[in-house]
Amino acid sequence: MAELTISSIEIAAEPAAVMAIIADFAAYPRWAKGVKSAEVLTEYDDGRAFEVAFVLDAAPIKDEYTLTYDWDGDRQVTWSLVKAKMLKSMEGAYVLEANGDQTDVTYRLTVDLTIPMIGMFKRKGEKVIIDTALKGLKKRVETLG
Predict the structure, then answer these.
(1) Which strands make up the sheet holding 102-113, listed edge to edge?
(2) Which domains does the chain have, with CATH numbers?
């Protein structure tokens, strides 16, 4: 059974700047550890990604998978798994909240694998993935900002 893992970070930028980095999938291999490639397959009329194919190599998980995205302006983006080799399900979100000249970013992730894994190890892996993603996002936004 998949369990929700949540973590947050504060980024010194406005929500629009943070969401612009989140929406730039082509750049993910430069800042999202373990992401070897991210290719937008289809887009909404506004140019934001609807479906994205990923190649991931983040031990112990190596996979190729496709996600669909749902955008709520610069406030939130959610995603759901379409297909994968190792992943059975994945639901996630970045939730952004303006806080003065900073943005509070919360990352929510629920993952279920096709292979059995002890819950404690799976949750630890999810926490590492989330923390790494948030730190990478913060560094990318603040470096480019």
Answers:
(1) 4-11, 102-113, 87-99, 76-84, 61-72, 49-58, 35-43
(2) 4-144 (3.30.530.20)
Residues 83 and 66 sit within 8 Å (Cβ to Cβ): yes
Per-residue pLDDT of the chain (145 residues), as tens digits, is 567 889 999 999 999 999 999 999 999 999 998 899 999 999 999 999 999 999 988 766 678 999 999 999 999 999 999 999 888 889 999 999 999 999 999 999 987 766 655 555 555 555 667 777 899 999 999 998 6
> pTM (2 decimals)?
0.87
Q: Nearest CA to 137 among 98, 103, 87, 99?
A: 103
Cβ proximity of 79 and 92 under 8 Å: yes
- List helix spans (H) across the chain: 15-23, 28-31, 119-144
**46 vs 58: CA distance, rounded Å:** 31
Query: Which residue, chain included where needed, has tokens 């759901």?
Result: 80
Length of the chain: 145
10 DSSP β-pair partners: 104
